[in-house]
Amino acid sequence: MKRLVVLFWMVLSTAALALDPSEMLEDPEQEARARSLDHALRCVVCQSESVASSNAQWAIDARQVIREQVVAGQSNAQIVDFFVERYGEFVLMTPRTSGSNWMLWAAGPLMFLLAAGIGFGYLCGRSRAPVTTEAGLSDEETRRLREIMDE
């Protein structure tokens, strides 16, 4: 059990190693802005991690650029636009709901409604289907069955 706990903490602590203390800004307010931007941007190398939790060289460079722009006085929107302009909207951890992305946002609820409609139609169709009752065995079939069973 102890080994499992140690392994668990080792896995979780790898994300803490992503941000080097030398990268941190002196002003806590600016550092907080930079960290929120780190979490808002995706590492284009790892593709499933934010810039904040990635150890890839690209993520290290991106964190440095973010901090340089924060110190230069750029707004959060300007910094995000800077990365989107260079790497596309894929760099955003949460895609924008505009343009062609609107269909991606709407696809989930639309597919759910479509599936619910198909399921509802199927169930309604089943309830209107004629009930078939099986006729029992005819007298001849009953007689033949008794002969077979008696043998």
Straight-line N-to-C gap: 67 Å
Count the strands?
0
What is the oligomeric state here? single chain
Secondary-structure content class:
mainly alpha
- How many helical stretches? 6
How much helix, percentage-wise, in residues? 55-70%
Average of per-residue pLDDT values: 84
Largest sheet: none
| Coarse morphology | elongated
- Regions with little confidence, pLDDT below 50 for 5+ residues: none
Q: Kindly estimate the percentage of residues that lie in beta strands according to DSSP.
A: under 5%
SSE pattern:
HHHHHH
Computed Rg:
32 Å
Would you mind describing this structure in some detail?
By secondary structure, this protein is an all-alpha fold. The chain contains six helices and no strands. The chain has helices spanning 2-13, 28-40, 57-71, 76-87, 101-128, 139-150. α2 packs across α3 (57-71). It is elongated and about 100 Å long. The N and C termini lie far apart (67 Å). The mean pLDDT is 84.
